[in-house]
């Protein structure tokens, strides 16, 4: 059995999809899944149910710096968020879990969706 985890990254500065953003799902130091969002800003991962820790705590790491640099936002400019880590309490049941994220050079927003 497995968990389907999806995300949809959006560029909060212009309302477009944030394609090419690297993400990792981790349990402690163990990488459960990783990938890069497609041109539509989406990524889907399958996680083996037995890989999810008993407490359900996983970390979603989003590497935003290369994305913003590729759009001409200098690291020394208005960007203060070079990466985002979100702690998730993932239920230990099979199914689909979706976490969309809205990114900007100096902020982010995320929510849990079905």
UniProtKB/TrEMBL annotation:
GO terms for molecular function: hydrolase activity. Gene3D superfamilies: Transthyretin/hydroxyisourate hydrolase domain. Keywords: Hydrolase. Residues 6-111 form the Transthyretin/hydroxyisourate hydrolase domain. This is 5-hydroxyisourate hydrolase. It comes from Gemmobacter megaterium.
